[in-house]
Backbone:
């Protein structure tokens, strides 16, 4: 159902789908994403008393956010194979690196989101036991190192996706990409570059304030740049795409 809905959505963008029938590589990739979500769930110990039930409830939001982020990455990965249907050795290597990073960073992602979400929840509900446990998980001066670990992972994931799209663009003649499809591919390259740029900047600030309690708040605040950056990028891409469509339409009329 999810696959079919995404196929219909992507079809509406005038992109010819060359990988509509999934191959073994896509099926294997989907299994890895499913395993990543499973690892998130089994990493949480089942509650044995009411105090642990409350803690389990606290962890629901970090768990859901982890799944949401993984699904966003999966959608971008799914779109690539649906659009281009590439399954050669170059893509196999890039895809393997990509999946290895996704699996490796499941636990750092969950750990980071627990810290970022449960600390405010502990203060909001006055749960001192929760705050004490979180204090044992990581020291304030170590947050910079955590942000570096996470930031490197996020940067590499999106840079690999960007490289996959760049490779697809280099095969434009072989894939018989139209002018509009080439434009959409270039937009996907820029999108993934911007998605990689924000965590890259966060890593830089983490290094600047390493071993300081300021590293966590500053490096974390950098991720709020995603909203204005991606909105500006989307608006610019939409305007350029509409202009290209108008040009192509006029050329078709003239011919």
Residues:
């Amino acid at each position: 159902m999810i696959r079919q809905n995404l196929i219909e959505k992507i079809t509406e963008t005038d992109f010819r789908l060359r990988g509509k029938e999934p191959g073994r590589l896509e099926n294997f990739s989907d299994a890895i994403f499913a395993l990543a979500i499973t690892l998130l769930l089994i990493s949480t110990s089942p509650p044995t008393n009411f105090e642990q039930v409350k803690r389990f409830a606290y962890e629901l939001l970090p768990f859901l956010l982890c799944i949401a982020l993984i699904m966003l990455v999966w959608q971008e990965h799914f779109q690539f194979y649906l659009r281009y249907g590439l399954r050669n050795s170059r893509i196999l290597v890039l895809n393997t690196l990509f999946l290895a990073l996704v699996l490796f960073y499941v636990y750092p992602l969950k750990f980071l989101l627990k810290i970022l979400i449960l600390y405010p929840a502990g203060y909001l509900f006055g749960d001192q036991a929760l705050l004490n446990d979180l204090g044992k998980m990581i020291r304030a001066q170590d947050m910079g190192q955590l942000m570096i670990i996470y930031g490197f992972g996020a940067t590499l994931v999106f840079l690999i996706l960007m490289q996959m799209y760049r490779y697809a663009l280099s095969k434009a003649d072989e894939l018989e990409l139209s002018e509009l499809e080439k434009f959409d591919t270039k937009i996907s390259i820029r999108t993934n570059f911007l998605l990689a740029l924000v965590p890259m900047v966060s890593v830089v600030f983490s290094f600047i304030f390493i071993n300081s309690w300021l590293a966590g708040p500053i490096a974390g605040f950098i991720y709020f740049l995603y909203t204005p950056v991606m909105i500006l990028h989307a608006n610019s891409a939409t305007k350029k795409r509409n202009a290209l469509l108008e040009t192509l339409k006029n050329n078709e009329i003239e011919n």
Q: What stands out?
A: The chain has twelve helices and no strands. The two ends are 41 Å apart (CA to CA).
